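Notebook B, p. 112. Complex prediction, attempt 2.
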Amino acid sequence: MKLADEEEAMRAGECGPAAQWAIEHQIAVGRYLGALDFVPVTQAHIMADTESLGAAGVQWLERMAALPPDQRRLRIPAITDPRGTDFAAAHRLKQQPWMLDLERRAIAAFEALGVLMTNTCINYQTIMPPVFGEHVAYGDTGVVIYSNSVCGARSNFEGGPSALSAAVTGRTPRYGYHLDERRAATLVVDVGFTPRALDEWGALGAIVGRLAGDYWQVPALVGVDRVPGSDEMKHFGAALASYGSVALFHMVGITPEARREADIMAANATLPRHEVGEADIRAFAASYRRDIDRVDLVVFSAPQLSLVEMQQVAGLLEGRRATVPLLVVTSPQVKPDADRMGLTARIEAAGGSVLSGMCFYQSYAREMAEANGWQRLATNSAKLVNILGGYGYRSALLSMEACVDAACRDGLIAS
Amino acid sequence: MFIATAGMGGRVEGEALAARDGFSARYDLDRSRGVFSRADHKLAGESYVGRVLVLDAAKGGVATAWMLHEMKARAVVPAALVLNAVNPIMVQGAALAGFTMISGFDVDITQAIPNGAWVEVDPTGERPFIRVVRSKI
């Protein structure tokens, strides 16, 4: 990789050991992925729940945080993805003291480094959405795909160590979706049915993700007959990124880089084409419903809920009572508004639990299942359904309405 | 011998655990027991500890960027990862952990390497490679 003078200085240790480690890490990643140089970035978003870090990762963070302040300075604003707990609710989730201890240590290390503890995976809805063309270093696949596709920003998937490196160096290797040529469509999906509910948007994202297959594919959707809202794009993108490891999509006539098909496809390109219709979306959801007629809990999470989703859940619970655990997970930015507007009180008066600053699958999901006897789960998040298979859950993908119904009928799913 | 387009880490040998399926540490593994835990993964129930994983594409989210480091610290970790297609997260995770990984072949590597074969993975030269040292053990 070609290095600028400042990058050479970091590599030589002139900017301290944190910058030296960070630039070496970025060079190793950049060389592997064919980057020729670095690109300046303006924000970093760091995924670092302690289930992923483990004790070894927390110790690694603590060593960096223990450096003298002038040797670990962040060059750009850095924010965080959800934590592994909501401390106020940890006892209800039966999380163990060692989990909370690791979280406290990770938080202390991040705060010492000057990282802003936003603890959210919906920063594009609540903190500071990137603008068109802005180069950023974001973690959380849902954040990256929304920022790239809906906002027109430019980021690769930056895992925690790489996002932190970008915060320290103020740059990232220029490969993948920082490059114009990588942002062209590689497959076309003709959508014969525009989803209505969030779970349907997630199912469509999952199907397209499976068709795409890997990180370097860029699906272009044609035929979407209206402009999806932010929560719809959120569920679609999160599922697409989860099932396909995809970081960028286009919706022709809707997303900013695809006003016309010609904007994202070469004139003579022959791309693979697929059709997805309503029957495919129904079949996808049905594939998860197999043999699940009752669930142990209902979870709204992954991504964290917007204020609008909080209002929808509160409305569906009006006059009803959840009789199995109903977890409603939102961001620390939305939660105070939900409190102030009475949404939290309405959800909790109906037996739900509003959790903040965490995400269900990032919060020791396997240990929570064992401690609480949870095996079968209902959610309207296709992303959550996908992830929890590895954690031993059997999950049903339902509409928000059907999830609330199940929570209020002792977990029984309406046929 | 199968040449990869990129590699990192040190030279290792081990028993290949090969399947035409994807890889994500969070989505697919029970990292405490060291086994593939995703019920519909082709390697469900198999131990990955000390094995050379030969799989199709990197899947899932960003957690693997930390998890390879955590797995290596507890010594409940594969010997190496060999993939048809990586995503940046696998590269970032391997870089943090000092983990051996190669990727990008002109054949489907999951079909080229027999499951159970003893293989050598060497990313240290100009041309990273995997080769079968001896067939199924």
